[in-house]
Amino acid sequence: MTTATGTRTTVQGAVGTAHTRVEGRDKVTGAARYAGEIPFADLAHGWLVLSTVARGRIRSVETEPVLAMPGVLTVLHHGNAPRLETDFIGLLGTPPDPTCTLFQNDRVAHLGWPVALVVAETSEQAREAAEALVVHYEQEPHDTEFSADRTDAYALEGHMPAVVEKGDLEAELAASAVALDQQYTTPEEHHSMMEPHAATALWDGGRLEVVDSNQGASWVVGELAKLFSLDPSAVRVRSEHVGGGFGSKGVRVHQVGAVMATTVLHRPVRVVLTRRQMFSLTGYRSPTAQRIRLGADADGRLRALEHLSLNQTSSVHEFVESCAGPSRVMYDADAHHTAHRIVRLDVPTPTFMRGPGEAPGSFALESALDELAEKCGLDPIELRRRNEPERGPVSGLPFSSRNLDACFREGARRFGWADRDPRPGVRREGRWLLGTGTAAASFPSGAGPSTAIVTAEADGTFTVRIAAADIGTGARTALALIAADALATTPDKVRVRIGDSDFGPAMIAGGSMGTRSWAWAVTAAAGELRERLALGTDIPPEGITVRSDTTEAVGALARKERHSFGAQFAEVAVDVTTGEVRVRRMLGIFAAGKIVNPLTARNQLVGGMIWGISMALHEEAVRDRASGGLYGADLAGYHVATHADVPPLIEADWVDDPDPDDPVGIKGIGEVGIVGAAAAVANAVWHATGVRHRHLPIRPDRVLQAAAGEPHA
Fold this sequence. Notes:
Elements: E1 2-5, E2 8-11, H1 24-29, E3 44-50, E4 56-62, H2 64-67, E5 72-77, E6 107-108, E7 114-120, H3 123-132, E8 134-139, E9 154-155, E10 163-166, H4 169-175, E11 178-186, E12 198-204, E13 207-212, H5 217-227, E14 235-238, H6 253-265, E15 269-272, H7 275-281, E16 288-296, E17 302-314, H8 327-330, E18 335-345, H9 358-376, H10 380-386, H11 404-415, E19 427-429, E20 432-444, E21 451-456, E22 462-466, H12 475-486, E23 494-498, H13 514-534, E24 544-549, H14 551-555, E25 563-575, E26 580-591, H15 598-617, E27 649-654, H16 677-689, H17 700-707
Parallel strand pairs: 3-15, 13-14, 17-18, 22-23, 26-27
Antiparallel strand pairs: 1-2, 3-7, 4-6, 4-8, 5-7, 9-18, 10-18, 11-16, 12-13, 12-15, 16-17, 19-20, 20-25, 21-22, 21-24, 25-26
Helix pairs in contact: 9-10, 9-16, 12-13, 15-16
């Protein structure tokens, strides 16, 4: 927007005002094409064949009958596939998951392990041939049973230390006036984004091109280059539109399979995963078993906090669900012990899933805090206030900002918390018992080095190029607003091009760091360009271009505890005669840095809260001990919250909380919305019924069992 002041025109800031998505019209009209829709001449199609045993070896693959089928071009398997380089450390600091290093040996590590890729002229021919392929196995006994009692679990560092300890835990517990010792569990959960994983690979003039659906083109380039022993400059990855990622869309079997096939056939090859294949090949949130012990003085001040977390991983790759992470940030205690352990099973490898660690970890921690408040006779919000740390509880570092109390104050006011009767099971409306609950939320706010290119065009417009990934969050629009302000122009004068590795390395869309990292790079480039234009330089036909690199600036950030925070509130209605739980209203108030686009930001936060409802009441992937596979590995068998499960009154808002160390003031909102949401719902169910549910999801049968006084099942 521009306003005239005398003879001078000033530009009002775009950041902080609501804007519809710049690509919105293309998406709703079908003009925006996703990875599986883009046409290529002479395109072949690959279809993966997955193992039917959970552990063992491949004895033989009967390829001859399949190769004789109409349209079949090749069948790749461990006996003929190109060899890969697997001895390297990837972008995330770990070796590649052997699931993705396709067909390198005859081992089968879990049910649904990729054993062959059939490539044909059409997708239908490839599928028919893949379903006809006979594979013989030497089957071995498998173990897929996860439980808190596993004796073969061990501590493992992930993206944070495995074990952190300070103080004498047992002494402080013994000296506590009030103590709590409980175990909480969460089940296996799956991303289930609408767009499946899809990639097309081709060689063009000696250069490998991959058109993909991913969360970071630079990430995929780096991994593929190492796997196939290529120079990164010889690989280009494009990923313009992504129909959801949530942590799953990194380097997976579909890209590797497509590159293998195009290398063998010398023509473009597309591999698209089916919904069922995604349940075994694209990661998931591991089930967790978490023990929490709390000790407090009579006034609720914590003396001891212990949070032990266990998750499963595959037999071939280690992944840690860092559930104790929130406890290391949220509340201090004289003795503070946290630990992460894993157990290897014959299951697929878990991966990052929206709010990794924080989502299941906050369910346990915030449920335990609610139980402690009940024991102390304190309001749950007051207990949290009494345990607000001044610095990082275990790091000792200052917080960049910590406006959690402001979130609780504003949320309590808007939710009507002051009118809450603290006694459980006293509010009734016909057959429904009513209750309210609350929980705190936090998620790290980091930044990664990125590069950006900004060009002043001869026609007075600007083009921004950055290898960002808009996975449905509205990042493309946010960057347009940020660039417009940095260039002192309006958003309609800015074109943003993303998702192309040729634009230079950039942070992935993950860890709630994407927009923050990209905005930093865009702001830096735009600022330098604006200075050059201020000198009165004429713009040539090719434009004036500036490139930025924030590696040095990001590396110079002072060490601090950097997090977004939030307060979640929920009201539920429970029918203990049918086991039905309904969320009637929900409110989240967040301190998440400067909000770039209130329209898409609110959608992100509400979406996360709905995930929390789904986590609390619905989502649960169950493994069959006999086969090692999942029951109902599709969107019919895997239940998620639908429109009928979401309350009409669900609202997200925020308090003022710009990060003083960020050029725009951004923190990150992609994941904090799900954190604490499940705990708020579970705490509300306790308030409604007087019965604690420490095991998710809170299914109707569990509500009925609890009402009857039966043990958990």
